[in-house]
Write the structure tokens for this entry.
Amino acid sequence: DSVSLDEWRKQVSEVEVRREDINKLVMNYLVVEGFKDAAEAFMSESGEQPPVDLAAVESRMKVRAAVQNGQVQSAVELVNDLNPEILDTNPRLYFHLCLQQLIEEIRAGNTEKALAFAKDELAPLAEEQEAFMDELEETMALFALQGLQDSPVSRLLSPVQRQTTASELNAAILASQAQDQDAKLPSLLRILRWSQDNLGKALDFPRMSDLGKFQTEANGTAAANGDDVVPMDVLPV
């Protein structure tokens, strides 16, 4: 079976999409991802109100930036200023922040300080929670394997590790503010890709080829008639 480009555009144009819903999705994305200035501009242009005080967004971004820059102790202080219960009620998160602090000390070559920190701060936590021991042992291996690019623990020194810790902390702050921990828009785009892939198994139809520009690519039938990529500007909003 096949659906022509004109028929597909006609069906899409009949889908009712409220501007209010689109605005909420955009604001949700800007707030969760921490684009404070963009959220303020969007609020001014659309009238859509953010779900939280945008000052809280700025504070959250300072925390995330501190972890991403390796300033873990600064991040902990900022979190406690925001809400001390976040770390008090989340031992796994606190442990991961301490692990990141240990990684940063090892990265800086502060061997004695790192060993003392592991003994005084991390070891007691691992003794209380056996599940933490494997992660601590893996991190301690950096003392022996640091500088070996192909070592199994070298990833702990990569920017990805900082990002992972920062994302975990960011999600905890959002949860404490009763906010979505993940933006809805990327999830909807993943669902769209999944839906297209599954529909394509049974039907030849014009697919969205550029989600950023909201363009659709003509199916085989339409392409044979000379059509190519067409902007999908027919959705009513």
